[in-house]
Amino acid sequence: MNRSAVARLSAAWLSSFVGLSLLVGCGPSKLEYRPNDLHAASLTREGSDQDPRAVAKKTSALIEQWFGTLDEPKWPAETLGADLEAVRMDSVSRCAGPVGRGVDKVERGVFRKHCVSCHGLTGDGLGAAAMLVEPYPRDFRRGTFKFKSTPVGKKPTRQDIHRTLYEGIPGTAMPSFRAIDESKEFAHDIDDLVEYVRFLAIRGEVERRVMAAYVREGVELDPDSGRLKELLAQVVQKWAASESDAIEIPEPPAYISSAAGDLAIGIDGIDNGQHVELMKKGQSLFESELTACVKCHGKTGAGDGASQDYDEWTKDWTILAGIDPKQSKDWKEMKPFGALKPVLAKPRNFHWGAYHGGKSPSEIFKRIVLGIEGTPMPPVARAQNGNPGLSDEELWELVYYVMHLEERS
Ligand code: HEC
Ligand code: HEC
Hints:
mainly alpha, 2 domains
């Protein structure tokens, strides 16, 4: 797809945003970051008599003092101290604000141009197109990301988010923005967008934590509160450390072609006998009790295992708030606060071969070893530092097996 095709596509999304937002009523009348009503509704369900919308609004006012407004975002440098820089604010400013060029001729509003139709202005995943796609567009405010090279509980690296924007997420509505990256004029945009995603995720997670401290611990919503400053610093620290949290991926063995996506058998000197042998080993690991892959992905890898569950974004406002996501009369109570119909986080069907986080052997290795955070997909036990689990050799056999479940004609 060339650049103008991308521009047309995003223009189409943008006009659907403007059109649809009137219909579904989720377009804010005045453009500002949307308070997190849904989280407030979940928190106050636990025996608090506070009005969720008032809680969300009050929290939002504090967050604005730290992170600024939609058109003029800022960084809480005075509160954090100079050494805690987790985002590049010049990039953030370029992505925020209305679409167009400023007096300095620099293009602004890059996020609004390309992303809001799905992710919403606030990064809450409530863009106009949200309910039309599955999985839903990501709500960045939880600070949880799926396709990364860091362990569960750690933040993605810049390179991880860059990869997502460059490649898109095949098998979902998340498009590839490769064409922008490859154009001269907009070459910076992807790097800038990475910073803005980090900014929205930090802003959103701080908002959630501050709100929880307010509702559960009764902490005053005062920007000088020591407890709240501590929460702010904790979130920022995790992002500041993300680059060094990435794990090292060992070289794939010669029998796996390291050329991304090239599954041809017969190259790298492998013959059919070796192929059959590797498939057998991979299959027995896949079907073993230790890995439990079958439990979710099913015996043949069709994604039809016995265990089917929801993701953490859904559990946050359902199970954790005492709501049964399967009962529509229950979850519909949360709809006015921005809840979308709960859908199961389906285990991948390997026969389709659409790897959401990239189909190179190294990416698949990462998914298996690190799990897919925010979803039921757990990290596999890896033999390391004396802990029992799969050796790297076995892990590659598993990767090989899974990759060859794709049905090709
Ligand atoms: C047409 C809808 C759509 C548009 C436009 C879109 N996204 Fe997404 N995006 C999605 C969906 C859907 C997901 C969730 C996929 C999943 O959960 O597997 C997603 C997920 C993501 C993720 C999470 C990746 C991870 O590892 O968890 C990031 C980051 C992201 N999008 C950034 C962006 C940015 C930045 C833009 C604009 C340049 C953008 N998206 C435009 C639909 C969209
Ligand atoms: C408890 C359920 C569960 C178990 C156990 C499980 N998975 Fe998954 N797996 C999932 C879910 C759910 C997804 C889809 C996550 C998403 O993208 O939202 C997934 C996705 C994947 C993907 C797709 C990655 C991508 O980029 O699209 C691979 C590969 C995978 N699993 C391999 C395995 C292997 C190998 C095992 C055993 C070691 C395993 N899984 C065990 C639930 C599970």
